[in-house]
Amino acid sequence: MTEVVAEVVSTDAADWWRQAVVYQIYPRSFADANGDGLGDVQGIISRADYLAALGVDAVWLSPFYPSALADGGYDVDDYRDVDPRLGSLDDFDAMVEALHARGIKVVVDIVPNHTSNRHEWFQEALAAGRGSAARDRYIFREGTGPDGSEPPADWTSMFGGSAWERVADGQWYLHLFAPEQPDLNWANREVRDDFLKTLRFWSDRGVDGFRVDVAHALTKDLSDPLPSTADLLALPRGTGNHPIWDRDEVHEIYAEWREVFNSYDPPRTAVAEAWVETHRVPLYASPTSLGQAFNFDLVQADFDAAQFRRIIDANLELAAKSGSSSTWVLSNHDVVRHATRYGLPPAEHGPDSRPITEPGRAWLLTGGVEPVLDRDRGERRARAASMLLLALPGSAYLYQGEELGLQEVADIPAADRQDPTFFRSPGVSVGRDGCRVPLPWTEAGESHGFGAAAPHLPQPAWFAQWSVEAEEGDPASTLHLYRRALELRHRLQSGEHLDWLETGRDDVLAFRRPDGWVNVTNFGSTPTELPDGEILLASEDFEGRTLPGETTAWLRS
Ligand code: GLC
C-alpha cells in the first residue's frame, strides 16, 4: 500500500480545533516521572516526543489540580494550581512549552458544577454557618421531617446514594455527584467572576482550550417546594426549563466565557460535556456559547453499520445547525474501552434503539470472568472503527491507550478500586477504574515503564502485550496503524463534509471526503470488493482488492 503525497492542509489558526485530533491524557495514569505511583506533569513532558510521533494536534488533560481524588481529580481543591504530587505551575508551563514546541495544542478540563469539599470556599461555608454569604456560594437547605433530619428531597446522586449531605449544624448541601463534590450556586455573582478569573489564568499561561465538565448542570431552579425524584423523572427533558439539567439560562454563563475566549488571539476554544437531548446539542456548540460539544453516540453504539450510519448523519446535521464541527468519541475515562466493548455481545436495545444497559458494564460486574469476551475480535473491530472515526469530518477525540488497542481491566480487586461509583452503588456498578489503569510503556519492569513504583491502580500481566515497546517492534500493531492513519489524515483532510457511496450491502459503509479520500468499512463477516482507487491504508492486511470482514480501508480515487 503506497502513501499518498499531497499538500498538508493548512488550517486558519483560529480554526485549528475544527478537524483536530485531540488526545485525552488522564494525567495520574499516563506517565510517572517522580516514582510515587501517580502519573505527573514531568511524565507528560517525558512523553512529548511520543505524542508528536503519534501525530495528534492537541492534548486534553483531565484534571491535574490539587485534589483528594474522591472522584479521580474531578473534585478540585484549587482551580488555579497543580496538585503537588503531579508537579508545580512551573512544570505546567514547561509542559505547555514542550507541547507547543512540537505543534501540539493544550486543552484543560474545567469543573464548574462543583468544587471539592476541601476547597477553601466550602471550608468557609462550613465555618460561617447558615444564612452566610459563604454558604450562598453553594446550595444549602434545611432538611425535612419534624427535626430536619431528613434530606430536603429524595434525590439520588449520579454515583448512587442521596444527593444531599448533612453538615454539623444540621443544614444539608446538594451534591449531584459524590458528597466530596458540593454543587456550586451559579446564581451567585462571585462564583461566576471566579471562574472567569480561572479561564483567564490558564489562557494567560498559554492554554489553547477548555473541556467543560457537566456543562449542562450549572444553573438550577431550586425554588420551593423541591420536586420529588418521581416528579423529576416525569418532567420532559430538552425543554430548557427542567429544574436541574440543561436549562436555557446556562448559556448566559457561557456567553460571558465566550467574551473571555474571544479576548485572546487566537480565541480560546471550549468543548462541552453535555449529556442532553440531541436537539439541544447545537446550543452548546454555538459560536456564542462553548463552540463545540461532545457527541457520545458512538460510545453507546454497537459495532453495527446501521447504527454508525444513523449516528454519523444525525451528528453532521447537528454540527451544521450550530455552525460548529462535529466531535467523535469511541473511548474516554468514563466508559469501557472500545476494544473490549466490541469483543462483547451487543448491548440490549430499547424501542428507541438506545442501549438499555451501558455496553460492557454487565460483563464488568462479573469481574470479567464470564467467557464472553473475545479480545482479538474486539481489537480487530476497534481498529476498523477507529479508522472510520478518523476519516469523518470534524474533531476526533482519542483516549490514552486506545492507540495501543488497550483493553479494559475488569478484575481489579475491590481493595484497589478508587471510583466512587463502586463504593456508592454496591453491586450495581464496578465503576470506571478499568479504563484508568496506568499505561504500559514497556513489556517488562516495574509498572511496565509507567514509573519506578507500584502504580496507583494495579496492571495485569497481559498489559505487556499491549505495551508501547511491544507495539513499536511490530509493524502490524495498532500503534503503527494509528500513526499511519493520523499522518494520512493530516495530508488528506479538506472540507467538512462527506458523500455516502452505494455499497449494495447493509453491513458495509463507504463514503468519500473531498479530494477523493474514500473510507470503506466492512462491519460484516463476509468479504466485499473495494471500489476503484489506490489503497492507502487498511486496518488489517489482505491481498488484492477484497476487503475482509470487520476491516476498514482508505482509498484515494
Ligand atoms: C464528568 C466526568 C466524570 C466525573 C463527573 C463529575 O462526567 O467526565 O469523570 O466523574 O463529570 O465531575
UniProtKB/TrEMBL annotation:
GO terms for molecular function: alpha-amylase activity. InterPro entries: GH (IPR017853), GH13_cat_dom (IPR006047), O16G_dom_2 (IPR045857). Pfam families: Alpha-amylase. One of its GO terms (biological process) is oligosaccharide catabolic process. Keywords: Glycoprotein, Hydrolase. Residues 24-436 form the Glycosyl hydrolase family 13 catalytic domain. CDD domains: AmyAc_OligoGlu_TS. It comes from the Bacteria. Belongs to the glycosyl hydrolase 13 family. This is Glycoside hydrolase family 13 protein. The lineage of its organism: Bacteria, Bacillati, Actinomycetota, Actinomycetes, Micrococcales.
